Amino acid sequence: MDYNAYGRQLTDEQILKDQHREFVGSFWDEIGILQFEFLVKNGLKPHHQVLDLGCGALRGGVHIIKYLNKHCYTGLDANSSLLRAAKKELKKYDLENKYPDLIHEQNFKIEKKNDGFDFVLSISLFTHLPIHLIEVCLKSVVSILAEKGFFYSSFFEVADENLCGPILHNPGNIHTYKQNDPFHQSRSQIQKIANNVGMEMKYLGNWNHPRGQRMLQFCKLALKK
User: Fold this and answer.
1) DSSP character at residue 126
2) The domain 12-220: what is its CATH number?
3) In contact, 1 and 106? CB cutoff 8 Å
4) pTM, 2 dp
5) Which of 21, 32, 57, 221 falls 20 to 30 Å from 123 in CA-CA distance?
6) Who contacts 77 (Cβ-Cβ below 8 Å, separation ≥6)?
């Protein structure tokens, strides 16, 4: 993954020292709980099937898994060392008996589960992806999303998609770029992609992310009679 630094593999010693918590962007407790509470607020129930795209070391996953029934959580990440760290976190939080599926995958190849995932979540994923890979992601999600399911994704918003950056975001004091990591996108850019792959997009905006990321909601386009 030459478009960001996320492919760097952590050593077992680094994982033992919990350095994966910093690697995924810190704010381990704050953002982890924020993700979970956001999903519950938007209708998550224990029986729902959840797909966590870019699950990392389960910053949000540990809270979601604890709440869900057994076999209801699937986490997918491109970095195999973070999935090793995720297993460490599962043991620490005593969640191994929830039997979450943790999948190493770099190209958004996702298998549909039962009638599809009720909730798909990606936090700080679009922020590390160039725009063409966001299209790949949305194409994959629409194929595995339940008919009445929702995909929620955070992103760094820019008003003018032609601005190459750096753009400063507050809170967080983060600079983002059009063609370099961390990436920003405009609503209209993502809206166009969503429409092309058969999804509706709704801008939810501020959800109290400590670095100023905004939230988007996607669902399948309603079938017209």
Assistant:
1) G
2) 3.40.50.150
3) yes
4) 0.95
5) 221
6) 54, 55, 56, 83, 86, 102, 103, 104, 105
Which residue in the block uniquely carries the two structure tokens 């970095």? 79
What is the end-to-end Cα distance of the chain in Å, rounded?
A: 43
Q: Which helix (H) or strand (E) holds 15?
A: helix 12-16
- Spatial neighbors of 108 by CB under 8 A, at least 6 apart, are 53, 136, 137, 139, 140, 141
Q: What is the pLDDT along the chain (225 residues), one digit of tens a residue?
A: 566 777 789 999 999 998 999 988 779 999 999 999 999 999 999 999 999 999 999 999 999 999 999 999 999 999 999 999 999 999 999 999 999 999 999 999 999 988 999 999 999 999 999 999 999 999 999 999 999 999 999 999 999 888 877 999 988 889 999 999 999 999 999 999 999 999 999 999 999 999 999 999 999 997 443
Mapping DSSP onto H, E and C, the string for 155-212 reads ECECCCCCCCCCEEECCCCEEEECCCCCECECHHHHHHHHHHHCEEEEEEEECCCCCC
Angle among Cα 93, 208, 216 to the nearest 5 degrees reads 95
Domain boundaries, the chain: 12-220
Q: Cβ of 8: how many Cβ atoms within 10 Å?
A: 11
